Amino acid sequence: MPDDSAPKTGHEGHAFATRMSHAARPPIRSLGFVNPPVHRGSTVTAPSCQARMDNAKHRFDRVMTYGTQGGPTHYALEDVVAEIEGGTHCTITGTGLAAVAVPLLAFLKAGDRCLMSDSAYGPARSLAEGLMKGWGIETVFFDPCIDAAGLEALWTPNTKVLYLESPGSHTFEVQDVPALTAVAKKHGAVSMIDNTWGIHHFQPFRHGCDVSIQALTKYVGGHSDILLGSVTVNSRDHHLIVRGAASAMGHYASPDDCWLALRGVRTMPLRLAHQEESALIVAEWLAGRPEVLEVRHPALPGAPGHELWKRDFTGACSLFGIVLQPRYTEADAFRFVDSLKLFGIGASWGGYECLALPTNAMLGRAVSAPLPGQAIRLHIGLEEVADIIADLEQGLAKLAG
Ligand SMILES: *Cc1c(COP(=O)(O)O)cnc(C)c1O
Predict the structure, then answer these.
(1) Does residue 101 form part of some domain?
(2) Could you tell me the distance, in angstroms and rounded to a whole number, from the CA of residue 84 to the centre of ligand 1?
(3) What separation in Å is there between the alpha carbon of 362 and the centre of ligand 1?
(4) Rounded distance, CA 241 to CA 318, Å?
(5) Domain boundary among 230, 263, 296
(6) Is the CB of 117 under 6 A from ligand 1?
(7) HEC readout, 190-228
(8) Residue 100 Cα, ligand 1 centroid: separation in angstroms?
(9) pLDDT tens, 156-187?
(10) 248 with 304, same domain?
(11) Which candidate among 152, 165, 204, 303 keeps its CA 20 to 30 Å from the CA of 35?
């Protein structure tokens, strides 16, 4: 439930682009600069000894006592991300992966059990199967297309966290988030979602999530030049748990990177809209190609969870997958990707440039059906869509030879 400490921005009624233009800026009638400044700092001095002691009690409520608690540049970005996701509080972390790790470690302890979607981001799985397991926290993976009854059947009294990623950023199954979080709620467990793909198109707290994770590295940064993450929650209680854990583990993000993310977010609505449109054109074109068995783009009819996407999302980002016809080998898939001239071969996404990545070898799936052919993940950038399609066309021609 939202509480009284939810930041009021004065832009609640405005469209996304307007809110991203105005969020967390100095007042426009202040005769000041347009953007908040970068505040760097480790030491924060207090006006008196007593004030310092009093301030320490409120260090998770933005009463600054030391640099690791963050400063005004972090807080500005936190307010922007809370605005994007519709939560009350946000904590910025140094990477998206740190934003995955902090809430998992904050809400789980020895003897607890976590139910994690089989489509979850690889390093989240590695954390669960490695460090968390070593600390006595069990993780059970479930099919991302599971329904409420299936999830209920996996539940045990010590299951404390439901971890979702919808759609999965490699296999793109959209999950029935409201149905699954309702099961968790019934059992008093915390529902977390990696909402990096959804950004503002999916409002996690309206669908029963308690914690929303974003890799700001992706579209918020938007230029493939920073790493940042965010953990957003919708109550002060959850905020204190997340902030307390991040602080205990010494998490911190560079204020310079936060400032770059604030710069990125102003143009994000435009970039996102353009890239979404281009990606759909490319996805539809690929769906008509004989070399392609399947296009896994949640906005295309027939994609896994397309009906759920239509129900719960207001749009899509520009990351999707294709599966080649089963007759093609891994070497064929590599030849296709290697031949692309506009697509970098690399991880991460959300920047202004096209990327391609063969993904079969990266899927550590435990319970889901294997993909029926070679999978390639495509990120569509800001290049002209006709040039992108021409490049893919010459690449697919290489598959024949
Ligand atoms: C990239 C990514 C992350 C991690 O972000 P980093 O900033 O690269 O650590 C987490 N989740 C998803 C879905 C991602 O794509």
Answers:
(1) yes
(2) 17
(3) 14
(4) 33
(5) 263
(6) no
(7) EEEEECCCCCCCCCHHHHCCCEEEEECCCCCCCCCCCCC
(8) 8
(9) 999 999 999 999 999 999 999 999 999 999 99
(10) no
(11) 204
